[in-house]
Every structure is written in C-alpha cells, then in structure tokens.
Design brief:
With about 60 residues, the protein is an all-alpha fold. It has one domain (about 5-60). Helices cover about 65% and strands about 0% of the residues. The protein has helices at about 5-25, 40-45, 50-60. The two termini are about 20 Å apart.
C-alpha cells in the first residue's frame, strides 16, 4: 500500500513500492504461483525511470 499527504506523494511512494517488489520478485517471488506471471511488470519497472513510471500511472497503465 502506498501512502502520502498528496497524490504526488502517494505516487512517489508507489514507485518505491514497485521497485521493492521487482527486487523481491527477482530473489524469490518469481517462483510463487501467484507471482509467476508478473515478469512483464517487473521488466517494465526495471527498465523505466521514475518519471516514466509516473507517466504510465497517469495514462492508466496503458
């Protein structure tokens, strides 16, 4: 869950949370049944800058 006093703060926290998820996915989550299909998301996170992820959020994940 991401939190912040403003929407921008919450989105910045979401970027941090996604980066942590990508690290955890590489280490252990990729082998879990309920996370196995998230490889494309992890690649998107790893290959995107913070600004690109924020733009992606604004476009609704498109």
């Amino acid at each position: 869950m991401s939190e912040g006093a403003t929407v921008d703060d919450a989105l910045a926290d979401l970027v941090v949370s996604l980066r942590e998820y990508a690290e955890d996915w590489d280490v252990r989550l990729q082998h879990a049944d309920n996370h196995r299909g998230n490889g494309a998301l992890v690649q998107l996170i790893k290959l995107s800058s913070d600004g690109e992820l924020l733009d992606w959020f604004e476009r609704g994940g498109e």
